[in-house]
Amino acid sequence: MRRPTRLSSSEGRVVGAGLVLAGLFFGGMTAKDMGYANGHRGDAGTLTVQDCRTQFDRVGSSRHRHARPVVSCTGTFRGDREDRNGREDRNGRNGSTVEDATVETGAKFEPGKQLAVQKTDHKVVLIDAQWIWRSLAIVCVSLCALVAGVFCLLTGFGARRGPVFRDAWRRVPGGTAVRAALAGTGGLAALGAGAALLVDGIV
Fold first, then answer.
1. Exposed/middle/buried for 38, CB within 10 Å: 0-12, 13-18, 19+?
2. Closest to 75 (Cα-Cα) out of 92, 43, 97, 57
3. How would DSSP label each residue in 141-186?
């Protein structure tokens, strides 16, 4: 009679491991990219717009798919020739020029418009308030997934025939202290994600 319970717990821990890996991957990648916003990563420069266009990406589930407009502008990227302290960069990273560089802008601009952008290892990004808040929301959601994954790993919750939430919550190793840490971290992350998405919509 104990074998199904063990199998269910194993399934729940597999779910937990998946959530932990997803949270670490997406949260880590997004947090790493946020270094572009403060100039610690990437090459700062200017993109002179030549043309802007709108494409439609299909997003959503198979039953409720809809087209999301994506506005991107193409132009010439020229890197700044001075570093953040006003000294000329000797590393050769800045001052570079890239023809036909494309960046998602969220809005169309007239040809000749100059946009302050950052050139990353793979693309050119427009660092604005919306990008920062959206990235923060992704980090917070990833943290929620990480907390949920740890909970599933500790208790086996998440399997089809596994324990219900109340029973799993009571069996968290470490008792009240660990439960308080999970609840506090997850709650703050959820509030942060909601606030970031709200501000993102307003901005």
1. exposed
2. 97
3. HHHHHHHHHHHHHHH-TTSTTS--HHHHHHT-TTTHHHHHHHHHHH
Q: Following DSSP, what letter does each residue of 33-92 receive, concatenated?
A: HGGGTTTSSSEEEEEEEEEEEEEEEEES-SSS-EEEEEEEEEEEEEE-SB-TTSPBPSSS
For residues 47 and 54, what is the distance between their CA atoms, to the nearest angstrom? 18
The tens digit of pLDDT for each residue in 131-179 reads: 788 889 999 999 999 999 999 999 888 877 778 899 899 989 988 999 9
Instruction: Give the model's pLDDT for residue 119.
Output: 84
Residues 6+ apart with CB under 8 A from 91: none
Distances from the Cα of 27 to the Cα of 32, 143, 146, angstroms: 8, 7, 9
The answer to whether residues 101 and 76 touch, using CB atoms and an 8 Å cutoff, is: yes
Mean pLDDT taken over the chain: 81
What's the pTM?
0.66
Phi and psi at residue 201, in whole multiples of 5°?
A: -70, -35
